[in-house]
Amino acid sequence: MGLVKKKAAPEVSPADAGGARDPLAALEDADAAVRRDAAHGLGHSPPPGAEAALAHRLQAEGDAGVREAILTALARIATPAAAAAIVPFLDREDAALRNAALESLQQMPVEVAAPALLPLLDHADTDLRIFAVQGLGSLVHPDRAEWLARVMEHDCDVNVGLAAVEALAEAGSPEALSSLETLARRFPDDAFVAFAVDAARSSFRGR
Amino acid sequence: MNGVTETDPQGLSPEDYATLCGFLRERTGLSFTEAKRYFVDRRVAARMQAVGATDLRAYMNLLRFQASGEELQRLVNLMTVNETYFFREKYQFDCLVNSVLDELVRGRPKGSRLRIWSAGCATGEEPYSIAIMLLENWSRVDDYEIELLASDIDSAVLERAREGIYDERALQGLPAHLRAKYFQPLRGGAEDWGPRWRIVEDLRDSVDFSLVNLADPQQVRGFRGIDVIFCRNLLIYFDDLGRRETASMFHDALAPGGFVCLGHSESMSRMSSLFVPRRFPDAILYQKPIDGGAA
C-alpha cells in the first residue's frame, strides 16, 4: 500500500454529464449534487423564471451546499427579481441562511441591492432594519452616508442606530458627524451610544 | 500623500513605481527592481481595477489604511505568485501528517483509501511535497492506499509538473537528504539552465495530474470522496461569487469530515459558511461537517 500509482484522470460518465436536462426540473431532483449543479447552471445561464424557481427551491431546501449554490446563483443573476427573491430569507431563524442571504445581496451590484434593501429601513421588524443597515452600509454608493444618517436621526430603536454608527465607523464618513451628534442627543441616557458615538468621532478625526 | 501622481494607463510613472516598491519593501520585505517593472505594473493595474481605484493615490490609501490589511495581502500574494517551491508553508504539511490524517483514518480499516487533492498545483511542487511528507513523516503511510490527485487550469504548467524537473530555487527548502533520496541530477544543458534535478520516477507515478477548471462543475465532477483538498493562494484570483462557487464545489467533492487547506492569508469564513474552522497545533484547516451540513 502507501502511495497509489496514478491511473487515468477522473472521468465524467455520460450519466453524470447532465446533458440537456432542463435545469429548472433538475432543481427539484432527489440528488443534492444534481440540484447543486442545476443551481450553478441557472446562475450562469438563467432562463426566464429562474429567480422564482430558485427561490421556491430555497424555501424547502435542506442541504446546506444546495442552499449556498442557490443563493450564489441568485447573487450572480443579480436582477431586481433575484434580489427580491432573497429578501424574505433575511428574517429566517437559521442564522447561517440569514447571513448567507445578506451576503448574497451585498455581492450584487449596488444598483440592484440598494433598491431591495432600502424599503427594509421602514420595516416594523427591528432585526430586519438592522440587516438593512448592515447591507446598505457595505455598499459603495454616493448616498450611503445619507441613508445611514437618516437611520441615526429618525429610527426609534437604539440598536438600529448603533448598527448605522458601526457601518459608518468602518468606512469613515466625517460628513456624518452631525448625525452622530443627533443620535447621541436622542438617546442621552444610553451609555453605549455615548461610547460608540465617541469612538466613531475619534475614528473620523484620526483619518 | 506626497509624490504620488496620476497612473499612466501604460503603467506606473517612475515616481509612483518607486513609491509603491518602497512601501512594499517597508511592509513586506519584498524587493522589486526596475527589471520587475512589467510584472508589478500588470498586477497593480489588475488590483486597482478590481477594487475600483481610479488612481494610484486612492489605491495606496487603501493599502496603507485598510484596517483588515486584506488588499495589501492580496497584492503581496499576486507579487509572489511565481515563488512556489518545495515545502512552501510547510506547517500545513506538518498539520497533515501530525494531526489530520490520523483523525481521518480513525475507525477506518487498514487498506482503505485516502484521497488528497492538490487543486491549482501549478508546476507540481505542492503535490510532490505532500508525497514526500507522507512517505517520510506519516508512520501509517503503508497501512492505507493513498491517492494523490493534482489539477491545474494551465496545461503548460501541468506538463512541467508531469516532467518533474526543477531548478535550485524550487528545491531550496528541501533538506539535502531528501533531495538525494527523491531527486536525480540532470546532466546536460547546465550552462543554459543552471543545475536541475528530476524527481524520481516512483514519485512522479504517484501523482495523478489532470487539467481542470475549478469554475466548471463538469470538470470537477470526477472529484468525489476527497479527504483533503489543498487549495492555497489560488482563490485570490477569483471574485467573491467565484470563491463562493468554488467553496461550494469543494464541499461537494469532500467526503463528510474532509478538510480544505487554504493559503495562510485566505479564510474560508469570508467565502462560505459551509465549513467549520478547525484549529490544529500546526495550522487552521476547514472541515466539512460529518453530517455534510444537512439541515
Automatic annotation (TrEMBL), chain A:
Highest taxon of the lineage: Bacteria
Q: Which organism is it from?
A: Azospirillum melinis
Signal sequence annotation: none
- Positions the record marks as coiled coil are none
The segment annotated Disordered runs over 1-22
State the name under which the record lists this protein. Answer: HEAT repeat domain-containing protein
